C-alpha cells in the first residue's frame, strides 16, 4: 500500500502554513490550495508520496499550473548555509512599518542552480533596500502573495547586494529565491494511514471525536492489547441450508472459539478499530493489488487502459458481502470510465458459486468484535479507508470478513433483541419461484442477516477472546463486569481514557486490600459460589468486580515532546497541544485457582509497612501482592 | 531445543495452554517477572524428585504443576523436598527469587535437551500443594519479555517502542531493518508488528532484518530467536553496519522501515540510500554507482527512527539525514509515567490499621475534636480545681499535652464505634493517584524521518502519459466562497432529485473506487 498516490485515494496535503488538508484525490479535477493556487489532480496521481511539489506559474499556452518536485538540497538550503556559517545572524525582531509583510524571523535566500546560497537576507535588509530602490508600483507588486513578479523583485533586491548582478548579465532564471513558509507555494502529499489521520484529527479537526487519543496512546493500547496479525483466515463451511429450513439449519457455534479475536469498545468513531485493523493487517486492501497496479504504472499506461475498457461492476460479483445486486450505478461509473483508474481493475468478479444464505462470511480468527451502546456502531471514520459500516452493499474490503459488531443488548439479553430472536423467513422452492425478484431479494437478505447476527452474538457469548481493547466514554468497571468472563486466560486488557479518574476507580477494584478480603474467606456472599459463578460474578458495592480475575494492573501515561533541531538553535518546541494527556490501564485476565489461596511472604509486607511508616503509611497500595 | 520450523512462536500464538519446551512468563509479583522454558519432568532434576523446579520467595513451583494449564492460571506453590539438593548446592541458594530455572537463557542448551529427552527415566514425584504461596503464569508477549529478558545492553522499553513502531509504520507485511539487536527487546516488539505469516514457497512476508556486531550478543540473540520460534521472520546478521551496510547475502532486504539504536547512526545512514551516496565516507570504495544496491524498498517511502541518548548525536544524525535527502525530520522525546492508585485514609473516625492517618480529615473534624477535648478536660480536670482559683502558670503550660491525652483516648473509642459500621476498610478514604517514587525521566531522543521513493524523469513521463491533464471538471479541496456556494447548491438539488436509494448507490460506487 501507499507506494504511489492512487486515483480516488484519501490523502493529506501539507501546506506551507503547516495546515493539513485531507481530501480524496478525484481524477480529472482541479485541486485548490486556496491562496496558494490550484493544480490538476492528475499531476499528483501516480506520483510518490512525501515529495515536495511546488506550484509553478502557468505556461503561456496552458490554463493550469504545473508542478515541480523540489529537491531536498533546495528544501534545506538555508540550514546548510547556517551550518556553514555557525555565527548565523539572528533574524530581526519587531521591525516596524515593513514594506513587505513577513512574519518575524523569516528569511529569504537566493540559491543558484547548484543549490548554493548566493545571498541571504532578513526582512530589515529587504525593507531598507526596497525603500531605496523600488518604485511604489514595484512595492505593491511585491506585496502580492505568490506572484512570480513579487518573487522576482525580492530576488533582484538580494542579487543587488551580491555584486553578482553587475558581473553577469542580470539573469534571474539562473537563481531561485527561497522564501519561508508563508509565501512559498509548496505542498507535500501524505498517505492517510492511522498515524497521519489521527494526528490530523487530533490537531486540526476535532479531537473530541477521537477522545483526544494521541499517537502515544494509540501505540500503547495496541502493544499492551497485544494486537497483531493472528493467522490466516479460517472460514466455516457453507451449511447450504435449504430455503425452507430455519434456525435449525444454522451452523453450530464452534465449541471452543479460536484465538486471535479481539473484543473492542470504541467511542472514537472508529479510530481505535482502524488502529487495530492496521495492526492486524485488515485495514488496507490486499498488497498484491497494489503491487500489480504499481507495475503497470511503472511501464506504460496501456495494459491498464485495456482493463479500463472492461470495467466490472459489483452486480456481476458473487461476493457474500454484496447482498443486493447493483443495477443502476451506471451514470457515475460511465463518467468515471473516462479516467484511467487503476482501482477499477480490482473489480473482476470471482466466478465462485454464490454462497447460501446461512454461509458465514467472517473469518474465525484475526477478527475485531465491537460492542456498542447505540443501535448502530458509530465507526464513521473508517470511511477514510474505504469502509462504510452502514452500507448494505459493500464492495470488497478486508474489514468485511474481519469486523463484527453487536450491541450490549445482543450480548447480554439477546432474547430482547428482535433481530436476534425473530426466526428467519422460510419458503418452499415453488413459492420462492413464484415471487417477484424484489421480494425474493428481501427474503434472502433477511435470512442472511439473521444467520450473521446469530453467528456474531453466539460466538461472542462463547468468549475465549485474546484481548480486550477499549477507548470508551462508558464506565470501564461496567465494561469489565460483562467482558471479563469472555476473555481467555492470560488475555491482555488495555483501556484508554482521556482522564485518569475512571481508570483509578477501576484499578481500585483490584486493590490488594480488596483482593485480600476476597480471598480471606470472610465474604459471605461468595461462600458457596462455584468457579464458574465466580467468573461471572455480577458485582456488588463492596466488590464491583471479582478482584482475582485481573492480574498485574497498572496505569500509565506517555507524552512525546517535540524538538526543533537546527544548527545552533536546538530546543524543545515552545508550545504544544494541551488538553487531556490520556492514560492507559493494563492488566491480564487471570484464572484463579480453586478454593482458598493464601499469599506467602506476609512477613515481607509487615516489614515494608514498618519501614515506610512516614511516607507510605497513609495509603494502601493497589496492585498485586 | 530450537522450536521446530512448523511451530508458531509462542509470542504470536501461544495457544490456549502452556506447552513443554516453550517460553512462559511467571509473574511472581506485579513487577517481578521470570521467563521459564517449561520442561516435562522426566526423573530427578537438579536434586528435585519432582523434576525441574522454580524456586522463588513465594514458594517452590515444579514445572509439572505449570504444564498444560490455561494461560493466566494461578499456580499454587508446592512442598518440595530440598533435602539432598540443599546439601549439594547450598552456596547457590540465595534470597534472590531464583534466576534459576530461567531456562535456555540462563543455561547451556545441552542441559535443557537432556532434561527434555531424559533417557534415564526415573519415576517423577507427584508435586504436593503447599499451604500458601502462588504465582501466575502468563503467555509471552513483547511487553512481558522486555521487562523480564536477560539484559545484555540498554534496551528499548514499551513506551518508546510502541510509539516508534506506530510512527515508522511497521505493520503486517512490512520489512524492517534493525541495528543493533542488543538484547532483542525491540526485535520482539517489531516482529510482532510486521508478522503476517511465516514465509512459505518464496512468498514475501513481513520480516525483521536485524544486525549486531558484538559476537557474544549475536550468538545469544541467535539462540533466543530459535528458542522463541522466530526463525524465518527474524534474520540476524553478525556485522558492523557502519562498514558493512545492510545487504544480506548481497541482496537487498527491500526495507520499508528502519530502526537504528547505535552510537553513531550517521555512520550507518549513507548505506540507507536509494543510490550510492556521493558523500559516502569511503570514497575509495571501488564499487561503481551501477553495482551499488540499496537495502530499501524501491517502491515506497521508507520510514526511519534513530534512538540516541545525547543531543550531540541527534545534531549529527539530523544533519546527515538532511544531506541524504530524508524529509519530514522530526525529533521527539517520550516521557512515560506509571501511576499508583491508592486510598488516602485520613480521619479521626477511621480504624487504626496500617496505612491510616488518624489526624482530622477536615476543619470540622478538627474543631469537633478540639471542642470535645475542651469539654472533657473541663469535666474531668476542672472539677477538683474549681474552688482553687490561683492556678500557677507552669500548670497552665502543661495542659495541651494532657488535653491531647484525652483526645487520643477518645479517638480510640470512636474508631471502635466505627469499625462495626458498613464501610469496609478498602473503600475508606479518598481514591488518589500518584507517580512512582522514581521515574525514567530520559530514555533517548527519537529522530524520525521519511525517504521518498526515487522519481526519475522517465517515471514522471510515464505517469504524465497515464494521467493526462486538461480534462478537469470541478474543483476540490479548499475552494473559495463562491465556488463552495455553487457546490452546495448543486448538492442540494441532487438530494432533492434523487431518493435515498440513489444516494446510497452513489456512495457505494465511491467506496468501490476507493477500496479498489
Ligand atoms: C543499546 S543496544 C540495542 C538495544 C536494542 N535496541 C534492544 O532493544 O534490546 C546497541 C547495540 O548495537 C550494537 N552495535 C553498535 N555498533 C554497531 C555496529 N556498527 N554494527 C552493528 N551493531 C552495532 C551494540 O553491540 C549493541 O548491542
Strand order of the largest sheet of chain A: 13-12-11-14-15-18-16-17
What number is the mean pLDDT of chain A? 78
Oligomeric nature of the chains:
heterodimer
- What is the CATH domain class of the largest domain in chain B? Alpha Beta
Amount of beta strand of chain A: 15-25%
Give the name of the CATH superfamily of the largest domain in chain B: Vaccinia Virus protein VP39
Shape of chain B: extended
Give a concise summary.
Chain B: It holds the Pfam family GCD14. The complex is a heterodimer of chains A (about 625) and B (about 525). Chain A is of the alpha+beta class.
Provide keyphrases for this structure.
heterodimer; A: 625 residues; alpha+beta; 16% strand; B: 516 residues; alpha/beta; Vcp-like ATPase, Chain A, domain 2; 4 domains; 8-stranded mixed sheet; 33% helix; 20% strand; extended; disordered N terminus; binds S-adenosylmethionine; nucleus (chain B)
Amino acid at each position: 500500500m501507499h507506494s504511489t498516490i492512487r486515483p480516488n485515494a484519501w490523502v493529506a496535503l501539507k501546506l506551507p502554513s503547516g495546515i493539513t488538508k485531507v481530501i480524496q484525490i478525484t481524477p480529472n479535477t482541479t485541486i485548490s490550495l486556496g491562496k496558494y493556487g490550484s493544480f490538476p489532480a492528475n499531476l499528483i496521481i501516480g506520483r510518490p508520496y512525501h515529495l515536495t511539489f511546488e506550484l509553478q506559474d502557468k505556461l503561456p499556452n496552458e490554463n493550469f499550473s504545473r508542478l515541480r518536485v523540489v529537491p531536498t538540497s533546495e528544501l534545506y538550503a538555508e540550514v546548510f548555509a547556517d551550518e556553514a556559517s555557525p555565527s548565523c545572524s539572528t533574524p530581526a525582531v519587531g521591525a516596524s512599518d515593513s514594506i513587505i509583510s513577513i512574519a518575524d524571523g523569516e528569511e529569504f535566500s537566493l540559491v543558484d542552480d547548484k543549490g548554493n546560497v548566493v545571498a541571504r537576507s532578513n526582512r530589515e535588509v529587504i525593507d531598507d533596500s526596497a525603500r531605496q530602490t523600488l518604485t511604489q508600483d514595484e512595492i505593491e507588486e511585491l506585496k502580492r502573495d505568490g506572484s512570480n513578479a513579487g518573487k522576482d523583485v525580492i530576488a533582484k533586491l538580494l542579487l543587488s547586494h551580491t555584486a553578482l548582478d553587475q558581473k553577469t548579465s542580470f539573469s534571474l532564471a539562473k537563481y531561485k529565491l527561497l522564501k519561508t513558509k508563508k509565501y512559498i507555494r509548496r505542498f507535500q502529499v501524505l498517505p492517510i494511514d492511522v498515524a497521519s489521520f489521527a494526528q490530523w484529527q487530533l490537531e486540526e479537526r476535532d479531537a473530541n471525536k477521537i477522545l483526544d487519543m494521541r499517537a502515544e496512546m494509540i501505540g500503547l493500547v495496541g502493544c499492551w492489547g497485544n494486537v497483531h496479525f493472528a493467522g490466516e483466515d479460517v472460514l466455516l463451511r457453507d451449511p447450504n441450508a435449504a430455503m425452507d429450513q430455519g434456525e435449525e439449519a444454522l451452523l453450530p457455534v464452534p465449541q471452543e472459539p479460536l484465538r486471535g479475536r479481539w473484543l473492542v469498545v470504541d467511542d472514537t468513531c472508529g479510530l481505535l478499530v482502524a488502529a487495530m485493523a492496521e495492526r492486524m493487517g485488515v485495514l488496507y486492501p490486499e498488497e498484491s493489488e497494489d503491487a500489480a497496479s504499481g507495475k503497470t504504472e511503472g511501464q506504460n499506461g496501456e495494459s491498464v487502459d485495456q482493463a479500463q475498457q472492461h470495467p466490472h461492476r459489483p452486480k456481476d460479483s458473487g461476493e457474500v458481502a454484496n447482498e443486493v445486486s447493483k443495477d443502476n450505478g451506471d451514470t457515475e461509473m460511465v463518467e468515471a470510465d473516462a479516467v484511467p483508474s487503476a482501482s477499477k481493475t480490482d473489480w473482476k468478479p470471482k466466478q465462485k458459486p454464490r454462497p447460501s444464505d446461512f454461509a458465514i462470511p467472517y473469518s474465525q480468527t484475526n477478527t475485531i468484535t465491537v460492542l456498542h451502546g447505540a443501535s448502530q456502531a458509530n465507526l464513521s471514520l473508517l470511511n477514510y479507508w474505504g469502509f462504510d459500516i452502514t452500507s448494505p452493499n459493500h464492495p470488497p474490503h478486508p474489514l468485511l470478513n474481519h469486523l463484527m459488531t453487536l450491541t450490549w443488548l445482543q450480548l447480554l439479553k439477546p432474547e430482547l433483541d428482535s433481530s436476534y430472536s425473530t426466526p428467519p423467513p422460510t419458503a418452499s422452492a415453488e413459492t420462492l419461484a413464484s415471487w417477484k425478484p424484489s421480494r425474493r431479494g428481501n427474503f434472502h437478505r433477511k435470512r442472511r442477516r439473521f444467520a450473521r447476527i446469530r453467528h456474531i452474538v453466539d460466538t461472542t457469548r462463547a468468549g475465549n477472546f485474546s484481548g480486550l481493547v477499549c477507548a470508551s466514554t462508558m464506565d470501564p468497571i461496567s465494561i469489565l463486569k460483562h467482558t471479563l468472563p469472555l476473555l481467555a486466560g492470560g488475555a491482555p486488557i488495555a483501556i484508554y481514557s482521556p482522564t485518569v479518574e475512571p481508570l483509578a476507580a477501576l484499578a481500585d477494584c483490584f486493590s490488594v486490600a480488596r483482593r485480600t478480603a476476597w480471598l480471606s474467606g470472610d465474604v459471605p456472599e461468595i461462600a458457596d459460589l462455584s468457579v464458574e459463578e465466580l467468573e461471572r460474578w455480577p458485582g456488588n458495592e463492596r466488590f464491583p468486580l471479582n478482584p482475582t480475575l485481573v492480574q498485574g494492573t497498572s496505569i500509565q501515561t506517555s507524552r512525546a515532546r517535540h524538538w526543533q533541531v537546527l544548527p545552533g538553535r536546538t530546543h524543545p518546541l515552545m508550545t504544544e497541544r494541551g488538553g487531556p494527556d490520556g492514560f492507559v490501564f493494563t492488566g491480564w485476565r487471570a484464572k484463579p485457582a480453586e478454593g482458598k489461596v493464601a499469599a506467602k511472604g506476609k512477613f515481607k509486607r509487615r516489614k515494608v509497612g514498618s519501614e515506610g511508616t512516614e511516607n507510605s503509611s497513609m495509603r494502601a497500595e493497589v496492585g498485586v501482592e | 531445543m530450537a522450536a521446530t520450523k512448523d511451530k508458531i512462536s509462542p509470542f504470536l500464538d501461544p495457544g490456549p495452554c502452556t506447552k513443554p519446551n516453550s517460553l512462559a512468563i511467571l509473574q511472581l509479583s506485579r513487577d517481578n517477572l521470570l521467563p521459564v522454558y517449561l520442561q516435562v519432568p522426566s526423573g530427578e532434576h537438579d536434586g528435585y524428585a519432582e523434576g525441574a523446579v522454580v524456586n522463588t520467595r513465594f514458594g517452590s513451583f515444579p514445572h509439572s504443576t505449570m504444564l498444560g494449564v490455561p494461560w493466566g492460571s494461578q499456580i499454587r506453590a508446592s512442598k518440595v523436598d530440598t533435602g539432598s539438593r540443599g546439601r549439594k548446592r547450598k552456596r547457590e541458594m540465595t534470597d534472590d527469587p531464583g534466576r534459576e530455572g530461567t531456562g535456555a537463557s540462563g543455561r547451556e542448551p545441552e542441559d535443557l535437551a537432556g532434561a527434555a529427552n531424559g533417557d534415564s527415566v526415573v519415576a517423577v514425584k507427584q508435586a504436593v500443594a503447599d499451604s500458601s504461596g502462588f504465582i501466575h503464569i502468563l503467555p509471552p508477549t513483547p511487553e512481558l519479555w522486555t521487562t523480564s529478558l536477560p539484559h545484555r545492553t540498554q534496551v528499548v522499553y514499551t513506551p518508546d517502542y510502541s510509539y516508534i513502531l506506530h510512527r515508522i509504520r511497521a505493520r503486517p507485511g512490512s520489512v524492517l531493518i534493525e541495528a543493533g539487536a542488543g538484547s532483542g527487546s525491540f526485535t520482539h516488539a517489531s516482529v510482532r508488528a510486521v508478522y503476517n505469516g511465516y514465509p512459505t514457497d518464496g512468498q514475501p512476508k513481513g520480516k525483521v532484518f536485524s544486525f549486531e556486531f558484538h559476537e557474544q550478543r549475536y550468538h545469544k540473540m541467535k539462540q533466543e530467536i530459535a528458542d522463541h520460534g522466530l526463525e524465518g521472520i527474524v534474520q540476524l546478521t553478525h556485522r558492523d553496519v557502519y562498514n558493512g551496510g545492510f545487504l544480506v547475502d548481497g541482496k537487498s532486504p527491500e526495507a520499508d522501515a528502519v530502526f537504528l539504536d547505535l552510537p553513531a547512526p550517521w555512520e550507518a545512514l549513507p548505506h540507507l540510500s536509494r543510490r550510492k551516496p556521493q558523500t559516502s565516507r569511503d570514497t575509495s570504495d571501488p564499487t561503481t554507482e551501477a553495482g551499488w544496491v540499496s537495502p530499501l524498498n524501491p517502491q515506497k517511502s521508507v520510514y526511519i527512527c534513530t534512538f540516541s541518548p545525547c543531543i550531540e548525536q541527534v545534531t549529527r544524525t539530523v544533519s546527515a539525514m538532511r544531506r541524504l535527502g530524508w524529509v519530514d525530520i522530526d525529533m521527539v522525546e517520550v516521557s512515560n509515567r506509571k501511576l499508583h492508585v491508592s486510598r488516602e485514609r485520613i480521619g479521626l473516625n477511621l480504624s487504626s490499621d496500617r496505612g491510616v492517618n488518624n489526624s482530622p480529615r477536615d476543619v470540622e473534624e478538627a474543631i469537633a475534636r478540639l471542642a470535645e477535648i475542651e469539654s472533657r478536660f473541663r469535666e474531668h480536670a476542672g472539677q477538683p480545681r474549681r474552688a482553687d482559683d490561683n492556678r500557677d502558670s507552669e500548670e497552665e503550660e502543661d495542659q495541651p499535652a494532657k488535653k491531647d491525652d484525652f483526645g487520643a483516648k477518645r479517638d480510640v473509642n470512636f474508631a471502635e464505634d466505627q469499625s462495626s459500621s458498613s464501610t469496609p476498610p478498602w473503600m475508606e478514604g479518598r481514591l488518589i493517584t500518584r507517580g512512582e517514587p522514581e521515574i525514567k525521566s530520559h530514555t533517548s531522543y527519537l529522530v524520525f524521518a521519511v525517504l521518498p521513493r526515487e522519481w526519475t524523469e522517465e517515471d514522471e513521463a510515464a505517469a504524465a502519459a497515464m494521467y493526462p491533464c486538461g480534462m478537469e471538471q470541478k474543483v476540490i479541496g479548499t475552494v473559495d466562497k463562491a465556488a463552495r456556494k455553487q457546490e452546495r447548491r448543486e448538492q442540494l438539488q441532487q438530494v432533492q432529485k434523487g431518493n435515498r436509494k440513489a444516494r446510497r448507490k452513489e456512495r457505494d460506487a465511491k467506496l468501490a473506487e476507493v477500496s479498489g
